[in-house]
Every structure is written in structure tokens, then in C-alpha cells.
Amino acid sequence: MNWTQLPLGAIQTNCYILENDNGEALIIDPGDEYEKVENFIKEKGLKPLAVLLTHAHFDHIGALDEVRLKWQVPAYLHTNESDWLGDPEKNGSAHFPIVANYQCKPAEKIINSEQDISIGSFHFQVIETPGHSPGSVSFYFKDKGVIFSGDALFYGSIGRTDLYGGDQSVLLESIHQKLLPLPEETIVAPGHGFETTIKNEKNSNPFL
């Protein structure tokens, strides 16, 4: 499996496109600029199978409906944010004048708990990492040594907790109990900024 990071939109949210040897793809957090996502998929000749949402803030869902319409694929979202896609107050778009009030269709696949999921030949673990938002999850591909952490853990930082449903103590607990115990060489692919590793964040992240 290979993955490509596409920073999208005014806040440069990282969308990740994962591809396997069969030309199948998963799309994580299509936050904006649908055309960039479409062009990448077309240029690579990929077949998307699903959209994975680390959480439902506006900067992670801006191109969601266009992606689903184009490729007729389902979106996966945690149950704690199942009503956020259509609610600008909860997804935050009502409070940022640089974007429209986002009202997306509900997710087709609701994640109710930590679990292993297989989509095509992709196999990964859903790890609940709330705090930045109540339904935040991370997608852990153990065999590839990478976790897509959304806005929980960043290079040298952690997610903000001043938005609807945020809680810093819960976020720190999530990071310490769910992310830092992973193998130190695990690559952390965050929702914003550069990739890092668990070892690097253990050793140098000032918030931890």
C-alpha cells in the first residue's frame, strides 16, 4: 500500500489517498478542492472504494459529497458525530466566514466502536481518539506501520480543543493511552502539517 498526502483548502487539511497494487483506493478526509482529488485519482487510474473520516469538522468534509457522488462510495464516520455532517454549528463551518455552511449527506457507514475493518484488500484498525472532537478516530494500518491520526496528534503539537465538543484532558488521555503505546517506529500521518513518528513525539512533543 502506498499513500499520498494532498493538503487541501484554506486551512491546508491533509487528505490522504491510499492505493493498493490493484489500483483500488481509500480517501481519508477530503476536506476541500474536489478538483485536486479528482485529478489525482484520474491521473493514477485509481478506483476509490470508500471515504474514511477521522472526524466531521468542516475542513475535513468540504469535498465529501462531490467525492461520494462521483464514485458512488460510502463514507465511514464515528457514531458520536453521526449528525455533524449536516449541522454547520457542530461541524464548525458556521463559525468560519471563509467557508460556506457545510451541510453534507449523512454517512453511509457508522463506526460504533473500536474495530478491525476490511475494504477490498485494505485492512486496518479503527482506534477511538476523542478530545479534539467527541467522535475523532485514528486509522491504524499495522502491517504498513502507519496511523492516520486526524487532528489528535501532530508533529510537535496536539489538536485544538476549543471547538464544539472539544476536551483537552480527554485528548491527552487518548494520545497517552491509544497512540503513544504503538511501536515507536510507527509513522503518524496527521490531519495538518508534516508526518512524524511515535518515537519523535514521545521524545520532543512539548504538549506530552
Characterization of this structure:
The chain has 5 helices and 14 strands. The chain is of the alpha/beta class. It has a single domain, classed as Ribonuclease Z/Hydroxyacylglutathione hydrolase-like (Metallo-beta-lactamase, Chain A). The strands form 3 sheets. A 6-stranded mixed sheet has the order 1-2-3-4-5-6, covered by helices on one side. The chain has a 6-stranded mixed sheet with strand order 7-8-9-10-13-14. Helix 1 links the parallel strand 3 and strand 4. The longest helix has 12 residues. This is MBL fold metallo-hydrolase. It comes from Scopulibacillus cellulosilyticus. Pfam families: Lactamase_B. Keywords: Hydrolase, Metal-binding, Zinc. Its cofactor is Zn(2+).
Properties at a glance:
208 residues, alpha/beta, Metallo-beta-lactamase, Chain A, 6-stranded mixed sheet, 20% helix, RibonucZ/Hydroxyglut_hydro
Short description:
By secondary structure, this protein is of the alpha/beta class. It has 5 helices and 14 strands. Strands 1-2-3-4-5-6 form a 6-stranded mixed β-sheet, with helices on one face.
